[in-house]
Design brief:
The chain is mainly α. It contains 39 helices and six strands. GO terms for molecular function: RNA binding.
């Protein structure tokens, strides 16, 4: 957008740090801000009503109204939030129209803390639009008259990069522009940025390419995109070696170079890697890798290299820079993450043997330096290539025993307890402290053959009931230690775990994670035991599964899903529905008896005062009606079933 499009002449900011004079838009008028706020509320109402046509026309009206002030609105602290909402729902033509009206102000928009988020959100939608343009497919021609003079999206992106070409070297380490440059790299490479997770107090959600999806499909891009990306990277790589080292350690420029390695074409990618590592000089490249691995920012560049390069480049870097020094790198508080990524990315079994030869004998050193993450990756390596599973397990057990031997005999722990470092809290929430890498090690070792996994299962079952209940309620503990036992074929271990958890089902069934363990326990026990426990579960679901005051949003859906799961279990649990029905009726008649649920209620009532007990009895009488409703639903399904096993479908409806 030219400067004449604005109601008032634009302002020029003072040049600083050698940057050219930057043109910035005027401050947004209060009337325009009030208009955007009103339109945003109306637009959201139309979305709720499902009125697509009205929403489309409203977006066009807004774009035409703020067209002379698009850059001002995007740069405003309050208006940028409304603009981002509108950008999320714009069509391809509307996005092109919106970006076209920003021309002339991109230098300011990249560096502004508010408009940079608007640009990132817009760039996240570029891939599909450009891909359709390359394929020759027409975009959504919802209003061709308004977008008649607007260039294609690919031309707009190239023009935007050309407009800030003189500032590429200064924008790369700008706190706001660096995020935009990462999104531009993704768009030029045909990769879609994804939302980076932020805390609950984060006002904006910056866009960042998801590093784990290195094999994700990319959209087609024109030749101009590849040339622009190569030109930008060559300009950066043309800097002096000292300047490149500074950029690699910079908190803003370092992630940009890491992004370039992830998304660049293979030819450009190799050039970036070899240039930054000084690959032509073996001694300097090894030292450069060593320095980068110990840096909190540059180490992420090495991780990006590990996950994005081909097998030949990976092997060359490993043999020159890592082989023979894995333990030294692993003991460092930062470079150990680089080692973990290289172990995870090991491409062949021969290289896996090389890694295990070097680190399997150093497990005690890794445990002593609290590097359980490296051991976890080694266990994954053994499981992935089916190498040295038993010898690795024995070496790990020997290392743990050596580490525990230095403690007093009373304080010594077995394998699982030493790895997970479980500590229960003293408060009523039963929160626990858990070593997550250690739990991951146990989870991986449980995938080993039976002669290795059986001792681990026995070690898990040695934990007391309170510890097992706390693990079942914890997301990491249940996934890594409890669920593998239920998923195994070891029926003895399942029954032993069930016996350990008996008497704790009342607290487990009301927990978001623990309810899954109760369902697994219910599936394991015999038919006779299921009949006994049906009445307890009916009582818990219908009476105790109540929403507390100020409950979180997820609890309502979780309560409904849990109720349906238990209704399904109750309807299909027994081969004699008549026996189950009569047993449940007898227990339902006694539900107000003190001895009806001894494992759930007796100990709690003994700790309560007489007044509290009366309040509980009154509350229990009020909650009697849902119990009868659930029993009526169960009785109707049981009586109408001709088969001994009752279908769960009517209950789910």
């Amino acid at each position: 957008m030219s400067s004449s499009d604005h109601d008032e002449p634009p302002q020029a900011s003072r040049p600083s740090d050698g940057r050219p004079e930057r043109v910035r838009p005027r401050r947004l008028e209060p009337d325009t801000l009030a208009y955007l706020q009103e339109v945003n509320a109306s637009f959201l109402e139309n979305l709720k009503d499902g009125d697509v046509e009205t929403s489309r026309m409203l977006l066009w009206n807004v774009l035409e109204e703020i067209a002379p002030r698009v850059a001002s609105a995007a740069s405003d602290r309050h208006a940028c939030e409304f603009i981002e909402v509108l950008v999320d729902h714009m069509s391809a033509q509307q996005l092109r129209f919106f970006l076209h009206k920003m021309e002339g102000y991109f230098s300011h928009l990249w560096t502004n803390r508010y408009s940079s988020h608007v640009l990132q959100r817009l760039l996240s939608k570029v891939g599909t639009i450009v891909g359709n343009e390359v394929k020759g497919e027409a975009d959504d021609d919802d209003d061709p008259d308004r977008a008649a003079d607007v260039p294609p999206m690919s031309s707009l992106i190239v023009a935007m990069c050309s407009e800030v070409q003189a500032e590429w070297l200064t924008l790369i380490n700008d706190v706001s522009a660096s995020h935009v440059m990462r999104a531009v790299f993704c768009a030029l490479a045909g990769r879609a940025p994804v939302l980076e997770k932020r805390g609950k107090k984060g006002k904006h959600k910056a866009l960042q390419f998801q590093s784990a999806q290195t094999t994700a499909e990319s959209t087609s891009v024109p030749r101009e995109f590849e040339d622009t990306l190569s030109e930008m990277l060559e300009l950066v790589l043309g800097s002096s070696d000292g300047r490149l080292v500074e950029l690699m350690s910079d908190a803003h420029a370092g992630p940009v170079l890491s992004m370039a390695v992830r998304v660049a074409p293979s030819a450009v990618q190799s050039k970036v890697i070899f240039k930054l590592l000084k690959w032509n000089d073996p001694e300097r490249s090894s030292q450069r890798f060593y320095d980068f691995a110990a840096d909190s920012v540059a180490s992420h560049f090495l991780e990006a290299v590990c996950h994005s390069c081909d097998e030949d480049v990976w092997a060359a870097i490993f043999e020159r820079c890592l082989q023979g020094r894995l333990l030294e790198f692993s003991e460092h508080p930062i470079s150990n993450f680089v080692v973990q990524n290289f172990i995870q990315r090991t491409p062949t079994s021969d290289l896996a043997e090389t890694v295990l030869d070097e680190l399997q004998g150093a497990l005690w050193s890794l445990l002593s330096s609290h590097r359980a993450g490296v051991i976890w990756r080694l266990a994954e390596l053994c499981e992935r290539f089916k190498l040295r599973e038993k010898s690795f397990f024995l070496a790990l057990v020997a290392a743990i025993e050596k580490l525990e031997a230095a403690k007093p005999e009373v304080a010594r722990r077995d394998v699982v307890s030493a790895l997970i470092g479980l500590q229960l809290s003293n408060n009523q929430n039963s929160r626990l402290t858990l070593n997550v890498p250690g739990a991951r090690i146990v989870e991986t070792l449980l995938k080993f053959p039976g002669d290795v996994s059986v001792p681990l299962v026995q070690s898990i079952l040695k934990l007391n009931s309170l510890q097992l209940v706390a693990l079942a309620k914890d997301s990491t503990g249940s996934r890594c230690l409890v669920e593998p036992i239920w998923a195994s074929d070891n029926q003895d271990a399942k029954l032993a775990l069930f016996e350990k958890l008996q008497g704790q089902f009342g607290s487990l069934v009301l927990d978001r994670n623990g309810s899954f363990t109760v369902l697994k326990c219910f599936d394991v026990v015999s038919v006779a035991e299921k009949v006994i426990y049906i009445n307890i579960y009916i009582f818990l679901i219908s009476v105790r599964l109540r929403l507390p005051r100020n409950y979180p949003p997820w609890m309502e859906s979780w309560r409904v899903v849990t109720l349906r799961r238990w209704c399904s279990r109750i309807a299909t649990c027994t081969s004699s529905s008549r026996t189950a029905k009569s047993g449940c009726r007898r227990m339902s008649e006694k539900r107000r008896s003190k001895n009806c649920f001894p494992t759930l209620w007796t100990t709690k009532r003994q700790r309560r005062s007489a007044s509290t007990t009366k309040k509980m009895e009154k509350s229990q009488k009020k909650k009697q009606k849902p119990t009868n409703k659930l029993w009526a639903m169960y009785s109707s399904v049981s009586s109408n079933s001709s088969d001994s096993r009752v279908s769960a479908k009517p209950l789910l409806q």
